[in-house]
């Protein structure tokens, strides 16, 4: 909540302001002019002038574009520091909700009675603090039970609070965040008593500062109030005191409260926490035990506090045991169950982690992040479908969370549910209308899946959302390269180079596309630059190894692959190293590289494709019987890769080569047909498939569209394609 009770400037000023607001709203609704409002406004300005600095100005703007200038009453001071006529807190209004016909009033609103118009005016302050802020006035008509109009106001902070704008807000220390949850669970909720308005206003201000991370201001505001009992407000007083560096004051406040409540386990726990923060471990242990003995009915919480201390103090095993005890006693407390889940997750005890994550969800921790963590634990435990279900639950709660969408789409892709993966990313793009990264992610997925047109559309959307981003321009250039639209591609690349905006990631995506199209020298130039960036060196080295293989520089290809493996031993790095050894006809070294890579990823498509190449190398020099077996094995491996990743182009190309070794031309054509459907712009592959149809399968009609495609592409095979096309037309004419 932002405000549970607030102050108005003066009783007279309040009535005048409310009548003024109602008059504005009434004129909007009825279309009538309201001369009295201007008179009242002038009176208000005149009555307030002596109390206000000249530069504290507020402008009220109605939806009708009516603008009242030079309104010199400070709204923040108006709301925070004074109380006035007929101003009610939310708590004081709750009993009257049925007769007002209004349900679900937000705690971020204060309500003032407007007697003259018999309406209610809701004043809502947004949850921000800074140089300017934003206020909404909602007029509620009792009889019609309907919202009439909003009146908006921008205001400048009063002089007394402008210092806050210059203060950097803070977040609670990482180790204290879970302590805060523990304390808040044990604390009694603070009551706002309407008959003591000054206390309510001070606590509203204090809570406002506390929630926004202004610890020093929060501590000062909380200390301006006397506390008769422990409460959440007293807790925040202690916490803001500690976080602002006033540990002595916090200890003194607890000592004063202990005089009134000498048997409070909650207060002793606060003392234990402060003592532990000051490295007074023995005192902390003593106060913690005193807290537990004073509040035995809730000792599960004190066992949890013991876990936090022991865990921070390096007593890992003892901490785990007491956490288990706490989790068994507090099965309905979500943050305890979550901590137990995360503890077991860190220890690699996946079954226990999954159990506690599920228990946390049962207790009401219906948070997308919990579903994500559960999904990750289930995925690590090999329960892939349940993991996907958990991520789907997270995505349903939080479609705008791009990280959730990425996780889910990746898992769906691994499960072969590519259309579902695309749909998830598309929904994420729609749910994030201003986020360029969402469109980039969709573009990358489509590019990986050889949906080139769709990737171009997504990258253009990303550029329209953020024209300053480099990567979507580079990725778009890469997509154009794959389509053989080199003029468009290099025009984009030229723009980026002129602005010196091609970063390492952008250079790699362009270079990879160049390698697909045989533009090796330029790709190497870009990749050498990218490899200078430590973050992307690994990716650049892998691509460099591929580039040098294309140039038949096998020695350099091996060197780059070895550098990639040494920087990060990933399956793609071992795969490119194996391929480099295969090209240099070193099968033993290649086999060793594949085996090392498969230790962590036995079903890696890249490693399996390297294994296919190795098998084909062995088949070339094998005897007839064993040669056939090797080709069959290679073909079987290619089909396995296709089932794992139906968009892995090399799997279809190598599968076709394997079938060709068996003289199975129909199978070869089927494999290469799949490859050309993915990469419709690969001229060499299209040419080889056309010749298979024409020379080996005597299917000129099948070859016809491939040769026409080559002529359209206009590359190096277009002349030969025209020759074959002429022969096919002559044969067709002679048959006719």
Describe this protein's structure:
- The N and C termini lie far apart (85 Å).
- The protein is elongated, with a radius of gyration of 35 Å.
- With 736 residues, it is α+β, with helices and mostly antiparallel strands.
- It has a 7-stranded antiparallel sheet.
- The chain has 38 helices and 7 strands.
Which features characterize this protein?
alpha+beta; seven-stranded antiparallel sheet; 736 residues; disordered N terminus
Uncertain runs are 1-142, 144-162, 191-197
Total of DSSP H or I helical runs spanning 4+ residues:
38
Percent helix range: 55-70%
* Approximate shape: elongated
Q: Count the strands?
A: 7
Distance between the amino and carboxyl termini:
85 Å
pLDDT averaged over residues: 75
Biggest sheet, spatial arrangement of strands:
2-1-7-6-5-4-3
Beta-strand percentage?
Answer: 5-15%
Profile the largest sheet.
7 strands, antiparallel
Question: Which class best fits the helix and strand makeup?
Answer: alpha+beta
Radius of gyration: 35 Å
């Amino acid at each position: 909540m932002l405000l549970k009770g607030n102050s108005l400037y003066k009783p007279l000023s309040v009535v005048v302001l409310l009548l003024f607001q109602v008059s504005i709203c009434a004129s909007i609704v009825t279309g009538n002019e309201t001369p009295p409002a201007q008179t009242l406004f002038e009176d208000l300005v005149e009555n307030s002038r002596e109390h206000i600095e000249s530069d504290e100005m507020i402008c009220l703007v109605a939806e009708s574009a009516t603008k009242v200038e030079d309104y010199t009453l400070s709204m923040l001071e108006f709301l925070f520091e004074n109380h006035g006529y007929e101003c009610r807190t939310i708590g004081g209004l709750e009993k009257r909700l049925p007769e007002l016909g209004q349900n679900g009033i937000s705690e971020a609103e204060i309500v003032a009675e407007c007697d003259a118009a018999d309406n209610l005016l809701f004043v809502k302050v947004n949850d921000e603090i800074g140089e300017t802020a934003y206020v909404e006035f909602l007029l509620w008509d009792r009889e019609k039970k309907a919202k009439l109009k909003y009146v908006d106001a921008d205001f400048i902070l009063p002089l007394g609070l402008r210092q806050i704008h210059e203060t950097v807000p803070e977040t609670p220390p990482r180790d204290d965040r879970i302590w805060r949850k523990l304390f808040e669970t044990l604390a009694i909720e603070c009551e706002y008593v309407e008959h003591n308005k000054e206390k309510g206003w001070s606590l509203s201000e204090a809570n406002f500062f506390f929630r926004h991370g202004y610890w020093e201001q929060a501590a000062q505001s909380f200390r301006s109030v006397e506390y008769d009992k422990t409460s959440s407000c007293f807790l925040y007083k202690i916490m803001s005191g500690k976080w602002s560096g006033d540990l002595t004051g916090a200890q003194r406040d607890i000592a004063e409260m202990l005089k009134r409540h000498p048997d409070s386990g909650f207060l002793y726990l606060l003392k234990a926490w402060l003592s532990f923060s000051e490295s007074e471990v023995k005192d902390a242990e003593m106060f913690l035990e005193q807290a537990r003995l004073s509040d035995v009915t809730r000792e599960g919480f004190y066992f949890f506090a013991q876990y936090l201390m022991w865990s921070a103090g390096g007593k890992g095993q003892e901490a785990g045991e007491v956490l288990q005890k706490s989790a068994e006693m507090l099965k309905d407390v979500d943050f305890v169950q979550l901590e137990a889940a995360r503890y077991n997750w860190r220890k690699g005890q996946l079954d226990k982690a999954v159990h506690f994550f599920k228990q946390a969800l049962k207790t009401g921790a219906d948070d997308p992040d919990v579903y994500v963590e559960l999904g990750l634990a289930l995925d690590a435990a090999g329960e892939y479908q349940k993991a996907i279900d958990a991520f789907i639950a997270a995505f349903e709660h939080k479609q705008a969370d791009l990280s959730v969408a990425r996780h889910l789409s990746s898992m769906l892709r691994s499960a072969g549910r590519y259309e579902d993966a695309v749909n998830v990313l598309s929904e994420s793009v729609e749910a994030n209308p201003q986020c360029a990264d969402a469109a980039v992610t969709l573009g990358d997925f489509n590019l990986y899946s050889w949906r080139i047109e769709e990737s171009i559309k997504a990258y253009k959307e990303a550029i329209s959302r953020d024209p300053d981003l480099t990567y979507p321009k580079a990725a778009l250039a890469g997509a154009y390269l794959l389509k053989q639209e080199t003029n468009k591609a290099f025009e984009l690349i030229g723009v980026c180079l002129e602005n010196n905006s091609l970063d390492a990631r952008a250079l790699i995506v362009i270079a990879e596309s160049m390698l697909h199209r045989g533009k090796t020298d330029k790709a190497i130039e870009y990749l050498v630059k990218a490899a200078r960036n430590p973050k992307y060196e690994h990716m650049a080295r892998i691509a460099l190894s591929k580039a040098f293989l294309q140039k038949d520089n096998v020695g350099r290809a091996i060197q780059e692959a070895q550098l990639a493996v040494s920087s990060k031993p990933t399956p793609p790095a071992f795969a490119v190293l194996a391929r480099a050894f295969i090209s240099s006809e070193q099968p033993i070294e290649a086999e060793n590289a594949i085996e090392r890579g498969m230790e962590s990823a036995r079903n890696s498509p890249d490693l399996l494709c390297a294994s296919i190449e190795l098998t084909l190398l062995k088949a070339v020099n094998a005897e007839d019987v064993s040669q056939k077996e090797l080709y069959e094995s290679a073909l079987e491996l290619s089909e396995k890769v296709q089932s794992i990743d139906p968009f892995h182009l090399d799997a279809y190309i190598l599968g076709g080569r394997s079938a060709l070794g068996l003289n199975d031309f129909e199978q070869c054509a089927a494999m290469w047909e799949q490859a050309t459907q993915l990469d419709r712009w690969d001229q060499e592959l299209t040419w080889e498939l056309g010749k298979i149809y024409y020379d080996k399968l005597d299917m000129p009609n099948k070859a016809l569209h491939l040769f026409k495609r080559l002529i359209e592409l206009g590359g190096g095979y277009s002349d030969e394609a025209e020759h074959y096309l002429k022969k096919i037309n002559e044969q067709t004419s002679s048959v006719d």
